[in-house]
Amino acid sequence: MPTARKPPRAPTAREALLDTALAALGSLPWSAVRMVDVAAAARVSRQTLYNEFGSKEGLARALVRREADRYLRGVETVLAEPGPPGRRLVAVAEWTVATAAARPVLRALLTGAWGERLPAPRPARAGARDAAVPEQRRADAGVPSPAELLVQARDRAAALLAEEPEGAVRSCELALRLALSYVVASAQAMAQCAEPDSWRPMTPTITSVIETILRVDTTSSRNTMP
Question: Can you give the residue range of the structural domain that contains 205?
Fold first, then answer.
């Protein structure tokens, strides 16, 4: 007898608030997103909102922390698919570019280009009381810089391709650097054009270039990112 599927987990109040705040960024700059409106749209009280995040800056840090975590989990998910290691790394590069195109907060995380419309995560004030919510304490501790995020992604990817650890680290770093260079170039093009359609997804030609580069046996011993 087949096992019954578990019903999907209902989102917590915190997840609902984060989803609502992120959705608001689709039509408003972060400066125009009001805490009272986020609480109302998520159908929770303002007190719950402040209990979870402490302030609007805390909400910004939580949004960015969640986006970083989702990116790292996504890298692992893509690499878990069957296939040769090189093809899986190309898939990670393709997924990174496509996901950055669709998720402005991730794009800013990968490039460091926040702009006025996004919730640039300011550090928690020195001496501020620790948040009561564990997830918020983690967010308040800080979010990774672009280089730190790529190092974390590289190390997770290399751990999943650990047949040859040194070669895996080098290949993962190369694939992620290539993806990031494409994200940065596209983000710069978007900054110079008012039309959001100015983003161009990764083309088959670019994918072919990455596959070719990954096939080249490099003897570089540099296994760290600046």
Answer: 13-215
